[in-house]
Design goal:
The protein is globular, with a radius of gyration of 25 Å. 45% of the residues lie in helices and 18% in strands. By secondary structure, it is an alpha/beta fold. Bound molecules: iron/sulfur cluster (SF4).
Length: 415
């Protein structure tokens, strides 16, 4: 059999980023080739200043670079500047995005301190107003954005699509010689809703550098199709997110599938995971999931990665799972301090492997890795540093000794 002397795999990198116009959101640049921004949204009542400040602070400390809050009534709008001020007192300057539906024009008009305190306004063109009122109410929000120098996100959504536009497109489609399926027409309505509204915002006087678009759908394939189309038809900065992604692993998997494919194609300037938390659950999960997607795909680095094998019948004790979990928790909890003391530490790669089959090999690829003994293997754990076997750990203190070695490595390389 003839085998080529060198087998070259296809390029292992994403497509070039789709060119978009950069938008400054309170000092965070979205689009224009800037690093892909992680954002999140609170689920507290915005009128409850203390709870909202606490959650925004937790999201920001986890790494959310923009945080969106609901502004649904006068009490919420009134609370916004107090929330911004309380965050500043805590040293948290994360830009706040106001999420407006139905009465955004009125809330922004009646509460100028809210309009000023927010770094961006999110408008849903499907519910900014209906019939004659729609254009006027949309114009009011855009004029206020222009007056305060704020960007807007025009966020169309499958669940609240502009019904007049959809009806018109459905009628036109039914008269066509080759009508499309209803779902394709709905996708087109979503894209048009975003693009028409953006064009209108520009006519009113908002620069292209103040407009971000999104067109969220809850089905993965529809979302991919819609964003490919948006990217093909415009150069507005794009906010990606699968709407109503769901709970737990389903929400994370569906969002990662959709966003991962689009990012790989160079589409997307900021992302959000719309995860439903367990009752009382940790809202920050959506931030960590977004960071992990960007990091595992090689777009950005946030925290040191721990590579761990899944374990199998060769790891019958829980020592390996416990060490992998301990190391991950220890790294996560140490990061706030490490980030200031060890610049670049987020690039660290650690491997915790379960047995001799892949353990030494995978550990050699990491900056520092340990290969624990599998069932029936000699009870010793070789440690590899920068690809070389450095020592072998034995006995009950393996976990603590390995943490000390990781600490020493960080001190040496990033200190
Ligand atoms: S490295 Fe060993 S323990 Fe881990 S999955 Fe592979 S064979 Fe199983």
């Amino acid at each position: 059999m003839n085998v080529a002397p060198v087998s070259v795999a296809a390029e292992a990198r994403p497509a070039a980023r789709h060119r978009t116009v950069a938008v400054d959101v309170g000092g965070i640049v979205v689009g224009g080739g800037a690093p892909i921004v992680v954002q999140s949204m609170t689920n507290t009542d915005t009128a409850d200043v203390a709870s909202t400040v606490k959650q925004v602070a937790a999201l920001a400390r986890t790494g959310s670079e923009l945080v969106r809050i609901t502004v649904d009534r006068d009490e919420a709008a009134r609370a916004v500047p107090y929330i911004r001020d309380a965050l500043m007192v805590k040293g948290i300057e994360v830009p706040l995005v106001g999420d407006f539906h139905y009465i955004g024009h009125k809330l922004l008009t009646d509460h100028p301190a809210c309009a000023e305190a927010l770094a961006k306004y999110r408008i849903n063109p499907g519910n900014v107003g209906f019939k004659d009122k729609r254009d006027k109410q949309f114009s009011t929000i855009v004029e206020i954005a222009a007056k305060y120098g704020k960007p807007v996100r025009i966020g169309a959504n499958w669940g609240s699509l502009d019904q007049e536009l959809l009806t018109r497109l459905m009628d036109e489609n039914s008269k066509s010689d080759a009508p499309l399926e209803a779902r394709a027409v709905t996708r087109e309505a979503l894209v048009q809703s975003a693009l028409i509204s953006a064009a209108r915002a520009e006519e009113i006087g908002l620069g292209r550098d103040r407009i971000i678009l999104s067109a969220k759908v809850s089905a993965v394939q529809d979302l991919i199709a819609v964003y490919r189309d948006l990217a093909r038809r415009s150069d507005y900065a794009l906010h990606l997110g699968l709407t109503e992604a769901g709970m737990g692993s389903k929400g994370i998997v569906a969002s990662s599938a959709a966003l991962g494919i689009l990012l790989q194609e160079g589409i997307g300037d900021t992302i959000r995971y719309s995860l439903t938390p367990e009752p009382g659950g940790d809202r920050s999960l959506e931030v960590r999931a977004a960071q992990e997607l960007l990091q595992t795909m090689g777009f950005r680095t946030f925290v040191p990665l721990v590579a761990a094998c899944p374990g199998c019948g060769r790891t019958t004790s829980t020592v390996f799972q416990e060490l992998a979990r301990d190391i991950q928790h220890w790294i996560t909890s140490s990061m706030p301090e490490w980030k200031t003391r060890y610049p670049g530490v987020e690039n660290l790669n650690v491997a915790v492997m379960g047995c001799i089959v892949n353990g030494p090999g995978e550990s050699k690829h990491a900056d520092i890795g340990i290969s624990l003994p599998g069932t029936g293997e000699t009870p010793s754990a070789p440690v590899f540093i920068d690809g070389e076997k450095a020592m072998t750990l034995k006995g009950a203190g393996i976990a603590d000794e390995f943490k000390t070695l990781v600490n020493d490595y960080i001190e040496r390389r990033f200190g």
